[in-house]
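Students often ask why inverse folding is considered easier than folding. One informal answer: many sequences map to the same fold, so there is more than one right answer. In these notes we will look at a single instance of the problem. The structure comes first.
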């Protein structure tokens, strides 16, 4: 597989404070990749820099072989890269349907837009039931479903997902991640996921990057990362790497 997204020595800052330092990573086409790290490590800054919300101070970002470094976010969306931000950020006073149509604002083919709306309703049937309801009246989980669906309406090649489980119950978190994996498998949509729930992220993703103090300090397949003692202790809360933990992480995955 070829690299759909490539970051080369990227540095971004908030005023004098450097948030990410010399970050280089590749996300392959069709892959789910995840960035792990503690609060304040710079995970969200990476996504904001990729999507053009923050201009990097140095380095380059390439998407589908084109240099998109510091490009206008609207142009980045048109190229097929969409950001689902932390906190969902739906349009609260617009209906669910109008939120979805906002996701398709770069498209012209009304029939194709209508087909894709039915497709996202098949992933999240509750949104079809609430299509005429103001998005601000949805529950947190339903708003997260809407934010992901709005991203899908732009026909993306790559979706950046920032903390999709934030504030959600374990049951809703599992439901949303099952759909994320289904979208990836059925549509071939590449995902770059930032997620505090390292257990969940490593279970659904193919490849992982570990970020500390703005730097990538480790990367590997998620299967291998789960076996590393540092990951078990600091991200999975497992202080012993005994046989019990080995059995726990080698259980058959039902989502993939």
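Output (designed amino acids):
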């Amino acid at each position: 597989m070829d690299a759909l997204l490539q970051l080369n020595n990227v540095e971004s800052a908030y005023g004098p404070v450097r948030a990410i330092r010399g970050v280089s990573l590749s996300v392959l086409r069709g892959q789910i990749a995840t960035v792990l790290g503690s609060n304040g490590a710079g995970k969200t800054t990476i996504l904001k820099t990729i999507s053009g919300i923050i201009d990097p101070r140095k380095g380059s970002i390439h998407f589908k072989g084109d240099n998109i470094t510091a490009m206008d976010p609207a142009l980045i969306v048109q190229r097929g890269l969409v950001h689902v931000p932390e906190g969902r950020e739906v349009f609260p006073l617009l209906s669910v349907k109008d939120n979805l149509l906002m996701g398709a604002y770069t498209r012209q083919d009304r029939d194709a837009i209508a087909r894709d709306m039915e497709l996202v309703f098949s992933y999240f049937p509750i949104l079809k039931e609430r299509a005429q309801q103001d998005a601000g009246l949805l529950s947190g989980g339903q708003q997260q479903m809407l934010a992901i669906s709005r991203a899908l309406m732009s026909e993306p090649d790559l979706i950046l997902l920032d903390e999709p489980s934030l504030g959600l119950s374990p049951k809703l978190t599992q439901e949303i991640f099952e759909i994320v994996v289904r979208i990836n498998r059925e549509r071939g949509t590449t995902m770059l996921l930032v997620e505090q729930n390292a257990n969940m992220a490593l279970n659904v993703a193919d490849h992982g990057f570990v970020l500390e103090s703005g730097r990538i300090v480790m990367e590997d397949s998620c299967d291998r990362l789960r076996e590393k003692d540092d990951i078990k202790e600091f991200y999975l809360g497992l202080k012993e790497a005994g046989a019990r933990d080995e059995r726990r992480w080698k259980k058959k995955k039902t989502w993939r």
